[in-house]
Fold this sequence. Notes:
The protein is an alpha+beta fold. The protein has helices spanning 3-20, 28-35, 39-51, 69-98, 140-146, 151-161, 174-187, 229-249, and strands at 55-57, 64-66, 101-108, 111-118, 133-135, 190-193, 200-208, 214-223. Helix 1 (3-20) crosses helix 3 and helix 4 packs across helix 8 (229-249). The N and C termini lie far apart (46 Å).
Amino acid sequence: MGSGTIKSIDKALDVLEILSKQKQPMGVTELSKILEINKSTLHGTLTTLLNRGYLEQDGETGKYMVGISILGLASAALQGLDLRAKARPVIKALSEKYNETVHMVVLRQGRVVYIDKEESAQSIRIHTEIGTSLPAHCTGVGKALLAWTDTKKLKNIIEEYGMKKHTVNTITDEETLLRHFADIRNKGYAIDNEEIEEGLRCVAVPIRDYSGKVIAAISIAGPSVRMPLNKLEEMADSVVEAGMEISRVLGYRTN
C-alpha cells in the first residue's frame, strides 16, 4: 500500500471522526479549516465517502453528515465482540482438552483475520497474534470458510487474491482446490497439512449464525510432531462439536 493511499485513508478517517462527533451537518469550508487541508483535496475524499454511503448530504444545505453505511461497520464490530464473548468458553475448553492452541477467525477481503486465541501451555507453541491476517486458500480456518462460500464469490476471491505457494503441500490449482472443498463439505471439517507453514498442522470447522450462514471458523493447531494426521482425524469430532456448540449459542438450529 503506497503512502498516497495511506494518506487518503487517513483523511477519510479524520472526516468520519469529526462528523461523528457533530450534532449538525458540516460544510466543506468548516471541514477544511479543521483538517487544515484545501477544499479541492477534501472534495475528493468527501465524494468517495459519499459514493460508498459513509456520508450523506443535507438536501437543503448540501452539508455533510455520517451516512447509513457506518451502521454496517458498527454492526460488524458489535457482532465480532458478541461472537468472541459467546465462543470464549468453548474455545478455552477445547484448548484445555488437548493442550493445543485454538484460533477463531473471520474472512475479510479474501484473507482470514484472527480475532481470538487460546494459547497452548506447551513449550513449543503456535506463534500467532490477534489481528494477524493470512491467506485463506492454504490455512485450515480459511478453507473451512471458503468451502461454504458460493462458487461465484469463491472464484472471484481466487481470481483477485491468487493461490500463492507457501510449502510443497499448498494447493495452487483452482480445480484441485474446488474438489478439495467438496471433500471438506462432505466431512464437515478442513485440515491444514503443513500448507501454510512446514511443521504446522491444524483441523478447522466453520461457525454458523442463526440463519445458517458461515460467519467464522475455529481451529486447533500445533506442531506436526505432536499432531500427526491420524491424531488430527481423531480430534476432528471434538472440533466439529465445538463449532456446532458455538453455532447453537448464536442461534443456529439443524432442524
